[in-house]
Write a structure and sequence with these properties.
Strand order of the largest sheet: 5-8-9-10-11-12-13-14
CATH class of the largest domain: Alpha Beta
Number of domains: 2
Helix content: 10-25%
CATH architecture of the largest domain: Alpha-Beta Barrel
CATH topology of the largest domain: TIM Barrel
Largest sheet: 8 strands, parallel
């Protein structure tokens, strides 16, 4: 028999419901019903006066809870990252490996493959680099950035890691290779590049479908050359957005969200300091430290973030002044749609997986469920 979760507010992915319950049986949602329609014999768990919503999905998570995937490319490391971020509402994620030596990338994909057998919150992997533009490398180590080879295309086409997101530079990877990888089912995002509008459009037309951390580490928009930022804002592509108050100005965050309804995804770009980790660590031999909330290298370069998804949601509501009903899809329905999982995640509907988050009235996470558990 299903059990029913009751909350004062239930966001179903599109609208806020009042006085409703969500029926769960096994891994799935079986019903969304007004509480008044439940039989007296129903098992009802009253969560309280907060908000029950689809669980958060983060497609860019380098680390958390003291672990970075690059440094600990093991199944146990991936599970630690997933567990750490679950406490902050993330019920689905792509552990992210950044530009590194080939053996690290291989180990990371093996680690994710192993972790997926133990935790359904691990939806796949995000491989950010190494096929990037050194001009816009950000915190990526230049010595590991390299061109894409035919062997890379073969390897990437046969990972069997669930959802695979690959960030690449459209001015450094051919449209033909983008098309091949997109045909093989990879989700291609454009990032870390000083690419032109024409180069970015060629990659989108070849099958790329998004932009990695919009505004950061990419060619900027001018009146005569849209660059990657202008291409992203003017296209139908998805775009990740780091809403922490450091990576992107508040006015630009609001502009992007307004310009791309249904296409903006909140991402954390979190490193190991996030979700209960230390205040500093070493990334490929370089110290990274939390300084006044920013995560940066000694020269001041941003090196990922110290963000969790619930903080990003609160930032958008509290600092940007956006309604919660507009913000929650940025953390759930939109990334689910990007990954092609919108038929199973991102909404509270019968037949969807019961991956949920319950927030109190201050939007702090109180409880999560991953596929009903």
């Amino acid at each position: 028999m299903p059990r029913f979760l009751k909350a004062r507010h239930i966001f179903d992915g599109g609208k806020m419901l009042e006085g409703h319950t969500v029926g769960i049986e096994g891994r799935e949602i079986t019903a969304v019903l007004p509480a008044a329609e439940l039989p007296s014999s129903a098992e009802v768990i009253d969560l309280g006066d907060g908000f029950l919503a689809p669980g958060f999905i983060d497609v860019q998570v380098n680390g958390g809870g003291g672990v970075n995937l690059n440094d600990t490319p093991t199944a146990r490391g991936v599970l630690t990252i997933a567990s750490a971020h679950r406490r902050f509402g993330t019920t689905g994620l792509l552990p992210t490996v950044i530009t590194d030596a080939p053996e690290v990338l291989l180990a990371a994909t093996d680690a994710v493959r192993g972790a997926r057998a133990a935790d359904p919150a691990v939806l796949g992997i995000h491989i950010e680099g190494p096929f990037l533009d050194p001009v816009r490398k950000g915190a990526h180590e230049a010595q590991f950035i390299r061109p894409m080879s035919p062997e890379d295309v073969t390897w990437l086409s046969d990972l069997h890691c669930g959802s695979v997101l690959l960030t690449l530079a459209p001015n450094k990877v051919s449209a033909a290779d983008v098309a091949t990888l997109a045909t093989e089912g990879l989700h291609i995002c454009l990032g870390h590049a000083e690419a032109s509008h024409a180069e970015a459009m060629a990659a989108l037309q070849a099958g790329a479908k998004g932009f990695t951390h919009l505004f950061n580490a990419m060619s900027q928009m001018t009146g005569r050359e849209p660059g990657m930022v202008g291409t992203a804002l003017g296209s139908d592509a998805f775009a990740g957005l780091i809403a922490d108050g450091f990576h992107v100005h508040e006015a630009m965050l609001k502009l992007a969200i307004k310009a791309k309804p249904g296409k903006i995804m909140l991402v954390t770009d979190a490193m190991c300091t996030a979700a209960g980790g230390p205040d500093h660590f070493y990334l490929q031999g370089r110290e990274v430290r939390v300084k006044d909330g920013r995560l940066e290298l000694p020269d001041g370069t941003l090196a990922g973030s110290n963000l969790t998804m619930d903080e990003a949601v609160r930032f958008c509501v509290g600092r940007l002044g956006l309604p919660l009903e507009q913000v929650l899809p940025l953390a759930s329905a939109n990334p689910a749609a990007f990954l092609g999982l919108g038929h199973r995640l991102g909404h509270i509907r019968p037949g969807h997986l019961a991956s949920l988050v319950y927030l109190n009235q201050d939007l702090h996470v109180q409880q999560t469920w991953v596929e009903g558990a």
